[in-house]
Predict the structure.
Amino acid sequence: MPLPCVEIQTAPNPRHAVIWLHGLGADGNDFAPIVPELVDPAWPPLRFVFPHAPVRPITINGGMAMRAWYDISGQEIAQRQDEAGIRASIVLLEELVAREVERGIAHENIFLAGFSQGGAIVLAGGIRHAQRLGGIIALSTYLPMAEKTDAEASAANRAAPIFMAHGMLDPTISHALGEMSREYLKQRGYAIDWHAYPMAHQVCMEEITDLKRWLSSRLV
């Protein structure tokens, strides 16, 4: 069964969906309040799906159990990555996509969005997904398992649009790491719409406005 989720529909009979993954220690309620700020009344009906990550012990937090998409073992998050946990969460993401398809949403009308850990999963999972997606939204994050990209990326999403945004003052996932991930993907031909803001590990109104503009051109 897919993960339990918070769901918000902007109108009946949606034909587009946004699957939005939260960050470490949060849950599916974390980004639900963004919907009224983000949605344009002119958009077609949308279903927002905010899943709750599984609860697991997190090494960097002394083994404390919390909702997380994978374990974090140290401050250098791009090193000693929890590849097994990342791959397991990509499978969970695939199950959520499959459920939207079963509910009548075409693959090309599904957007994957995520913040921090959630953004890492949608980036890694989105470029591996076998069918063309509507787009990928990766906020304050990085590309995990980058060295496996060339061997595992799906040709279907080589041209999928990617919105990446990062805080220039981010102490959790450095702006430099976000930039490295952006450049890594750009070198492989991915279309990255990059935005940086004078903020920490968070989301700001200017970012929401930029994302709204990006989505408006793709929700038809």
